[in-house]
Amino acid sequence: MAWRGFRGxxxxxxxxxxxxARAALPGRLSSxxxxxxxxxxxxxxxxxxxxxxxxxxxxxxxxxxxxxxxGLELSRVADCGAAQAQEAVRAAYEAGAAWGRASAKERGALxxxxxxxxxxxxxxxxxxxxxxxxxxxxxxxxxxxxxxSFLEWFAEEARRVYGDIIPSSAKDRRILVLKQPVGVATIxxxxxxxxxxxxxxxxxxxxxxxxxxxxxxxxxxxxxLALAELANRAGxxxxxxNVIPCSRQQAAAVGEVLCTDPLVSKISxxxxxxxxxxxxxHAAGTVKRVSMELGGHAPxxxxxxxxxxxxxxxxxxxxxxxxxxxCVCTNRxxxxxxxxxxxxxxxxxxxxxxxFIGNGFDExxxxxxxxxxxxxxxxxxxxxxxxxxxxxxIAGGKRHSYGKNFxxxxxxxxxTTSMLCAQEETFGPLAPLIKFDTEEEALAIANSANVGLAGxxxxxxxxxxxxxxxxxxxxxxxxxxxxxxxxxxxxxxxKQSGLGREGSKxxxxxxxxxxxxxxxxxx
Length: 523
Ligand code: NAP
Known about the structure:
- The chain is α/β, with parallel strands linked by helices.
- It contains 15 helices and 22 strands.
- The protein has helices spanning 31-37, 82-101, 104-120, 122-133, 137-157, 196-208, 221-234, 248-260, 273-284, 308-320, 337-354, 373-388, 420-423, 439-446, 462-471, and strands at residues 50-52, 55-57, 62-66, 73-78, 164-166, 174-181, 184-188, 211-215, 241-243, 264-270, 289-293, 298-302, 330-336, 392-395, 410-413, 430-436, 451-452, 454-458, 476-479, 494-495, 498-499, 512-519.
- A hairpin with a 6-residue loop joins strand 3 (62-66) and strand 4.
- Helix 3 (104-120) packs antiparallel against helix 5 and helix 5 packs parallel to helix 6 (196-208).
- The radius of gyration is 24 Å and the shape is globular.
- Bound molecules: NADP nicotinamide-adenine-dinucleotide phosphate.
- NADP nicotinamide-adenine-dinucleotide phosphate (NAP) binds at residues 188-192, 197, 215, 217-218, 248, 251-252, 255, 270-272, 275, 278, 293-296, 327, 425, 427, 453, 493, 498.
- NADP nicotinamide-adenine-dinucleotide phosphate binds at residues 188-192, 197, 215, 217-218, 248, 251-252, 255, 270-272, 275, 278, 293-296, 327, 425, 427, 453, 493, 498.
């Protein structure tokens, strides 16, 4: 039995038989869901059907959702296919006219109600995230607040969608600009932020007057379905928020419908660059609007002038949150030669002092499991490649005995730009350190990537701060900061990290069309 030493949400050892002995009925929650995996979560928040046109569709094929920390089956969730995807798109389309005509104040009030219900149920929603994603409960609680903040923000932004009146060069004309909802938006999201990646899109879409169909990741559908239950209770009308979970086997077929159906006007995707390219190809056939939040490869540059202690604190936060599984996580550290050795030493000490592997439900855990074994294999591949080319393991470097999806936080030095971990996203708890000599060299390495989502640097030289902030080829820059996301800030990348921005005052534009109205014959 591979699962060892795991503990229940209350810190008690599991008293359950091995996971495979506890398969649940199709379309129903496993008995383990409420008894063990989630702790005190009200049953009404644990949904397993698809949510289409305001109704829960149960009783079809189902796929298992497992706790990545223990392997236990949490639930069996409806496995939707192309037909259900079409049904959901039609439901969203039919609901669109009334929702688009509702006043911005009415839409905002419902989004606000949805936000309030999230806050009322924040502990339960966080437990659902920890159970299906594995992240420490404190991080999951942080995600719920972050996630709810998008509903609150866009509830307010709904009323600030202003048009324009443009001075005309013809005396008998008036030129008006209206902003109108684009129509049905399909939303495809990853597992690393099972709640926030949905509300960051859906908040903006609903505020603008669009209706949505959400396809959550196979690993984490329960958070999306809990959001549907709360949307329903908040009074969001039937068909405005639809969710169609599906297994990885169905993802391509479902995705194709969501990106090609003529009733869909807009696609908003967060996930890997590779999948984003597939969806862009689908979207081209009917020329849909697209927003793409794709992969990153964030550089974290420590210049000789940096405050060493602050740089180490920022490095830990930026690298190891969510066990290194965030798109804005640092993927490569570039450290100037004068400060390099001191940084390596302090970073390794801080890792030992601050990082604790365990079940996300256990008090004190900072490092939960990776999402699945494929993720563990990728980090192993990157470490093996680096070591075979001369990198040194300063800390970690192998799987952890806690369970098969757990990996030790790892620090590698003597990394060069030819190594895989310096060339592509690892998406795990691996910190590779590259030593550099000059600012120009650091910028050249940082900008050599074909993606550009986030970038960080530590420096106390004001002229250098401006030079580097302006020259880094990324969508978001942290200067002496390791975490930069917040609801009021525009989130998004350049190059192959994507198209468009989410959150902030700009996020709602992704769901609005500009219509020019020429009012003539006025003399
Ligand atoms: P992924 O494999 O691209 O999956 C993301 C979503 O796309 C999942 O719902 C997945 O379904 C679905 N999907 C996969 N293949 C599809 C297809 N052919 N058609 C339609 N849908 C399809 O990404 P991931 O590995 O889960 O997520 C990690 C990636 O997301 C990283 O690269 C990370 O940097 C990126 N990310 C970016 C941001 C950002 O804001 N820029 C935020 C978070 C994550 P299944 O789950 O069923 O496979």
